[in-house]
């Protein structure tokens, strides 16, 4: 019998509870050994506890060090900071892992199998921003400070290179803008080149590319890339770009990894426009659960889950509306569970 694994479950807002139910049904069918501690956050947290990230939720993750999270809405007004950003900071989740793999063939781009590893805590997203008043205009000048540290870059690059080795990636590409932002992104590039020379030479091919060229190359010939590793802002943009190559955010899972905690999520938001209608596509969260199984060293279950998703979509042709099908969330989940059990 597999040892139980304690994990925090945050159903989240909007379609969150619907896609979480679908994911739990699939994990149950797999016999995944998670023991869930259900917690609230986002809009649900504000409504029940007056805080988008209540202390009980933080305590739970401090205890389990592992969470599966539905999308969270940050209420506008009220001065609330994004719960997602707070979670990253609180648990020092420095690496954001965003795989993109073609599941439904015949789209604009076939046979995509890429992963973006994004630095999640530094760069231009640290939030040091302010305005300068000139004459009567209080917002005459807007300023932002970016901070990248050698230590922060190194831990992310080490994570990415190690992940490349353990998952058999052949090529890693460091994406930067060191021709213009010589210090801010140059330090990341230099750190990566140095780390490769010292510890990883020969284990995979290392390449470097400037962010703007990378965006163009990804659209013209994405197959030339295998793993992209980059700083926070560039990674944010590129990871959505690669999600677009494989059918959009409905198919995009993400993992936020720290030294001693990891949070798995769908990349899309709470989709308030379709919440409660029973039509949400749960695949992004299901794929995130697959990453969580891999993280917990349960790769056979992860592979079984991914295979069942492929078969449900491509053999049974059961697909939700956003993928051109007619199935609701429940019908898709039933077909998926059937595939897992057969
Ligand atoms: P969104 O991703 O929620 O929705 C964009 C569009 O995609 C909508 O038309 C929606 O119906 C559709 N969509 C998204 N996920 C889908 C799914 N699984 N199945 C079918 N269709 C799906 O983006 P938004 O509308 O900009 O954001 C809504 C809320 O979500 C905001 O409050 C935002 O802050 C939050 N958000 C949270 C996260 C997160 O928690 N990781 C990420 C992004 C946005």
Automatic annotation (TrEMBL):
<feature type="domain" description="Isopropylmalate dehydrogenase-like">
    <location>
        <begin position="6"/>
        <end position="336"/>
    </location>
</feature>
<dbReference type="Pfam" id="PF00180">
    <property type="entry name" value="Iso_dh"/>
</dbReference>
<dbReference type="InterPro" id="IPR019818">
    <property type="entry name" value="IsoCit/isopropylmalate_DH_CS"/>
</dbReference>
<comment type="similarity">
    <text>Belongs to the isocitrate and isopropylmalate dehydrogenases family.</text>
</comment>
<keyword id="KW-0560">Oxidoreductase</keyword>
<dbReference type="InterPro" id="IPR024084">
    <property type="entry name" value="IsoPropMal-DH-like_dom"/>
</dbReference>
<protein>
    <submittedName>
        <fullName>Isocitrate dehydrogenase [NADP]</fullName>
    </submittedName>
</protein>
């Amino acid at each position: 019998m597999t040892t139980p694994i304690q994990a925090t479950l945050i159903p989240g807002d909007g379609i969150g509870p619907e896609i979480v139910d679908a994911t739990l049904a699939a994990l149950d069918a797999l016999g995944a050994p998670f023991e869930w501690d259900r917690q609230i956050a986002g809009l649900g947290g504000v409504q029940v506890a007056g805080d988008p990230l209540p202390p009980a939720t933080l305590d739970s993750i401090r205890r389990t060090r592992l969470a599966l999270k539905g999308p969270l809405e940050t209420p506008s007004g009220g001065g609330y900071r994004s719960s997602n950003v707070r979670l990253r900071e609180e648990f020092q989740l420095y690496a954001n892992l965003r795989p993109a793999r073609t599941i439904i063939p015949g789209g604009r781009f076939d046979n995509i199998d890429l992963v973006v590893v994004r630095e999640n805590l530094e760069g231009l997203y640290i939030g040091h921003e302010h305005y300068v008043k000139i004459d009567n205009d209080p917002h005459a000048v807007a300023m932002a400070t970016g901070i990248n540290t050698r230590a922060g870059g190194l831990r992310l690059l080490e994570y990415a290179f190690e992940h490349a080795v353990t998952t058999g990636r052949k090529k890693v590409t460091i994406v930067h803008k060191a021709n213009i932002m010589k210090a801010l992104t140059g330090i990341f590039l230099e750190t990566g080149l140095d780390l490769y020379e010292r510890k990883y030479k020969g284990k995979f091919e290392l390449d470097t590319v400037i962010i703007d060229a990378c965006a163009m190359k990804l659209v013209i010939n994405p197959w030339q890339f295998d793993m992209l590793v980059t700083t926070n802002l560039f990674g944010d943009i590129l990871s959505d770009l690669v999600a677009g190559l494989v059918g959009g955010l409905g198919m995009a899972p993400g993992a936020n990894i720290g030294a001693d905690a990891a949070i798995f999520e769908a990349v899309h938001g709470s989709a308030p426009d379709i919440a409660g209608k029973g039509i949400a596509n749960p695949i992004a969260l299901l794929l995130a659960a697959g990453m969580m199984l891999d993280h917990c060293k349960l790769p056979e279950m992860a592979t079984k889950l991914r295979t069942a998703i492929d078969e449900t979509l491509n053999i049974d042709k059961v697909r939700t509306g956003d993928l051109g099908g007619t199935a609701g969330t429940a019908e898709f989940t039933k077909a998926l569970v059937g595939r897992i059990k057969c």
